[in-house]
Design brief:
Its cofactor is [4Fe-4S] cluster. Belongs to the NifH/BchL/ChlL family. By secondary structure, the chain is α/β, with parallel strands linked by helices. The chain has 7 helices and 4 strands; from the N terminus they run H-E-H-H-H-H-E-E-H-H-E.
Length: about 140
């Protein structure tokens, strides 16, 4: 979807309503502006999965190497937001600067591998740009 039409606001509101109703909610932001996780965390920008992972090693590694070869814990990439909502920010490249699809796909793989089992969310909501492509997500 086009930028500025309310995707992040909608995800934030749905997450908040579900959490208020007692659901264990996980929100995964996949936007370079981090709008959704900022909404849920009082406008505080949280580090992206890629940044957290790159800080865990002195050598530059690709996200795929972390997904398949390193030990990462949920607490390394999850931060609490409004009403106990678990937030993860995948991020992405700035518009026009590169392909986000591969990084987003690998980060979601990592999230499912280490976070979902540990947190056991009732609901997972993804705030994803409408134009992520290059092996990631695409709309026909």
């Amino acid at each position: 979807g086009k930028g500025g039409i309310g995707k992040s606001t909608t995800v934030s509101n749905i997450a908040s309503a579900l959490a208020e109703d007692g659901a264990n909610v996980l929100v995964v932001g996949c936007d370079p502006k981090s709008d959704c996780t900022r909404n849920l965390r009082g406008d505080i920008v949280m580090p992206t999965v890629s940044r957290v992972l790159s800080e865990k090693t002195s050598a530059p590694l690709e996200l795929g190497e972390f997904v398949y070869g390193k030990e990462i814990k949920a607490e390394d990439i999850v931060q609490e937001g409004f009403n106990g909502i678990s937030c993860i920010e995948v991020g992405g490249p700035e518009p026009g600067v590169g392909c986000a699809g591969r990084g987003v796909s690998l980060a979601i793989d990592l999230i499912h591998r280490i976070v979902v089992d540990e947190l056991a969310p009732d609901v997972i909501l993804y705030d994803i740009l409408g134009d992520i492509v290059c092996g990631g997500f695409a709309m026909p």
